[in-house]
């Protein structure tokens, strides 16, 4: 019934629903673009840190790193799971139209539940905004902890390489003195 009504609407009648859809779509695209930019910045930062450490290390450290890379490549990569906290896409113009049509039908039929109560919609919007805010802070915190862990791991690798270098220098000095 609703799809037939939707198809029979003129472009002017569909326009308010299309505008609502476009507004929600733009908000969604802004959120997704922000997340994409943040992930790209994190990737660039990680690459820059890797390049700095690679130039600072000596030949022995590079060998050590190659061995570690081979071990990580041998492990199976796990499939990336969907993030349940990611915000949902906005509803299409047809579903906005359906909501308005449901209001008209509920006025005729008193037995239907009032699902489109403006107070309920406002509460749902507030809950959604809180969820988005919590999601973004959680993502920021996770990125910060990941970065700290990587920095600590790099420090440990540097220390191990330097110790190995010192041992080899001592061995060379002993071999030369003999």
UniProtKB/TrEMBL annotation:
Chain positions covered by the region annotation Disordered: 67-87
PANTHER family in UniProt: HIGH MOBILITY GROUP B PROTEIN 13
Molecular-function GO term, any one: DNA binding
Name of the featured protein: HMG box domain-containing protein
Domain of life: Eukaryota
